[in-house]
Write the structure tokens for this entry.
Amino acid sequence: MKIVLFGSPYNPLSGIAAKVLYDRGELVLVVLPCVKTYLFSEGIIHGLSMYAIGIIRLLHIIMRKCGAKTGDSYSSLKEFLAVHRNIKTVIFSSDVDELQAKIANETRSFISDEIRAVSCIFPSKIPVPIPIFKQMINIHPGLIPENRGPNPYFWVLVEKKEAAISCHVLSNQMDKGDILLKDTFTFPENSSEYGLEALTAKRLPYFLSRLFDGFDGYWLNRMPQGKGMYHRNPSINDRVRNNRRSAIRWCDLLKLWR
């Protein structure tokens, strides 16, 4: 089975997914988003904290390119791609025919029933179905169906939900496809959103290995979601009210260099 990964350029989970799939010999193409995120929609302090994270991840990429950093630990998908230049990329399109044509052009050597789509922290809604793919799944950094939505980390911390990684079938309703696999874990009470992301990143390689080693069984036994909750992105008021203005604690910046 060959895999096309839909990922976010500066997200560590997307980078880890790419590495796991590459090491398994399954990654053939990466789809990158065409949209840019406005970082200050959740307040100035949150925006600045996200800029700080982004700048440090950009420095990791620069160090890779100039040979100052080695090893197989990647801070983002962009850093992974800077090392593995043999992996082709295409830019996402919400038009199914255009997107399929782009993917088909880069995967001509594989027949359609051998290709699977894996989304991992992709910021745009992916149209379903895309005929070239035999299966389409999403890796979600939260517990499904209890914590659907674009920022599960914030709501885990604010509402004392379980931290988790979930895999579900991609559908035309956000985070509502049948569930293949879930993994829950504990986290320190004083965690930041970045800290929770870092814990998720540590668990993700084992989760993905388990998922893809037993994929056929998980696919056959996938379960419909029950009632749950879709959480929007937190507003400025949500962040102020819950004292979560920043996505990081400043001591987290030291961990970004690891």
In short: Residues 2-255 form a domain with the Rossmann fold fold (CATH 3.40.50.170). Residues 44-65 form the longest helix (22 residues).
